[in-house]
Design brief:
Elements: E1 17-21, E2 26-29, E3 32-35, H1 36-49, E4 60-62, H2 73-83, E5 86-90, H3 96-108, E6 113-118, E7 132-135, H4 141-160, H5 166-176, H6 179-193, H7 197-210, H8 215-227, H9 231-244, H10 249-265, H11 274-283, H12 288-300, H13 304-318, H14 322-336, H15 343-361, H16 370-381, H17 385-396, H18 402-412, H19 425-433
Parallel strand pairs: 1-4, 1-5, 5-6, 6-7
Antiparallel strand pairs: 2-3
Helix pairs in contact: 1-4, 2-3, 6-7, 7-8, 8-9, 8-10, 9-10, 10-11, 10-12, 11-12, 12-13, 13-14, 14-15, 15-16, 16-17, 17-19, 18-19
Length: about 425
């Protein structure tokens, strides 16, 4: 559990405050003007005001420009960042002031920071591993769902009080570790940023030789090995992390994903990863990636009903993430046909198309080839045959291993029996089968 902090000044009861960190007024984000004051008034403030505190009473939303102080507004802002029970941070538009305040909050508090953003654009490197919940305020039908998501996230944050500050995690690790380990991690980070994966892996391996009881080191080394396709080696590191720390939810999730990859590539009987992912979900029922990965396991087992349940739960938890959305829809179409796509699902597809479009336009493209494959699938489902083919060919150029093409082909083949309702399906399948 997070350690207690120094009691705040008594002039304001910060224990009931949710401080909102976000841009003010109208800001241009990409090609679109966004009225953040309108978002605060219609989405954030009403949602926060309905969140119940565990000890009774409700959260009180605050934003510094909405208060009237004789004192310096910057001083009040720092007090809110330091002492508020919860901070809601909207990183939409990657505003510099917002990120500065997020850094201050993360340094001051181990827990109680919830990050939100419009669209699922790739965040900056240093917080790319932190979950940012997607919300929408347009069209107006999305406002109700966004309020419900915010209430759910803030309520869970109050109830579980989990550590969510990477700054605090890093500082604690630094204080607990040796200077030699700290230097190795700095060198590993520099190697990683220069795409020198072999050097980064070697630095982590050396750090683990010094501090073999640190589950975070094992987890991070496992992620590096996973990125390089060294699945069996990654399994060993994730196993070590769960053995050292049995409640390490992220390690259980990654262990399940890696074990399933080894299982698929092996001849002899090995664990599928199902039990590991179920353990991860038991530790954190809000991990959409664990649900989606479990859905993938059941899909490959041809347990389609169970797979659809897992993708559906992942879709619900993530509020429309493209990966579970597309898999859930393909399984639905497999059973009921294209006509079964609902109006709500079409809105999710529209939102996913925008975010994935920006991912493939990034320099270099973000999450290639999967962002191309997913956007191609959206175009297939929405009748944009030529665009679907163009995107698939572009994505194919970014593949590094045959299993990536095989995996996407398996996904498309879920709806082979319904392909007459999906013009372009035959061409996409043929491209994936090309040598």
């Amino acid at each position: 559990m997070p350690s207690p902090r120094i009691p705040p000044p008594k002039t304001i009861d910060y224990t009931s405050i949710c401080f909102v960190v976000m841009p003010f007024g109208k800001k241009k984000v990409g090609k679109k003007w966004i009225d953040f004051d309108h978002i605060y008034d219609t989405v954030f403030e009403p949602a926060i005001a309905l969140v119940k505190l565990p000890e009774g009473g409700k959260l009180i939303p605050k934003r510094t420009d909405k208060d009237y102080f004789a004192a310096n507004i910057d001083m009040e802002m720092f007090k809110y960042l330091e002492y508020s029970r919860i901070a809601l941070v909207d990183i939409t538009g990657l505003n510099a002031n917002v990120f500065y305040e997020l850094g201050v909050r993360h340094h001051a508090n181990q827990s109680g920071t919830a990050i939100f953003r419009q669209e699922q654009l790739p965040p900056p490197f240093d917080i790319s591993h932190i979950k940012a919940f997607p919300y929408d305020y347009e069209p107006v039908e999305h406002v109700k769902a966004s309020r419900a998501l915010i209430r759910k996230v803030l309520t869970a944050s109050l109830e579980y009080n989990r550590v969510d500050s990477p700054v605090q995690v890093a500082l604690q690790a630094q204080q607990a570790g040796s200077p030699k380990v700290e230097q190795l991690l700095v060198e590993a980070t520099n190697a990683f940023r220069n795409d020198d994966w072999a050097m980064a892996i070697a630095k982590y391996q050396n750090a683990i030789k010094i501090d073999g009881g640190n589950p975070t080191l094992c987890q991070e080394l496992g992620l590096l090995l996973k990125n390089q396709g060294r699945w069996a080696d990654a399994v060993q590191q994730f196993e070590k992390a769960t053995q050292i720390s049995p409640d390490y939810e992220e390690a259980w999730r990654e262990l399940g994903i890696a074990r399933n990859k080894v299982y698929m590539n092996a001849i002899k009987n090995l664990p599928t990863g199902e039990e590991d992912l179920l353990k991860a979900i038991s530790l954190n029922g809000e991990d959409f990636d664990a649900y989606a990965s479990l859905g993938g396991i059941y899909k490959r087992m041809q347990r389609y009903d169970r797979s659809a349940q897992m993708y559906g739960q992942s879709l619900k938890v993530s509020n429309g993430h493209p990966y579970p959305l597309l898999n859930a829809l393909l399984l639905q179409i497999r059973e009921k046909g294209v006509a079964s796509i609902t109006a709500q699902q079409k809105l999710f597809l529209q939102r996913a198309e925008v975010s994935l479009g920006k991912q493939v336009e990034s320099k270099p493209p973000y999450n290639a080839p999967w962002s191309f494959f997913d956007l191609s699938t959206i175009c297939l489902l929405t009748g944009k045959k030529a665009e679907a083919i163009k995107l698939l060919r572009a994505g194919k150029a970014y593949t590094t291993d045959g299993w990536q093409l095989a995996t996407h082909l398996d996904t498309l083949q879920l709806v082979e029996g319904r392909k007459d309702g999906l013009p372009g399906w035959d061409q996409l399948a043929a491209i994936l089968k090309e040598k």
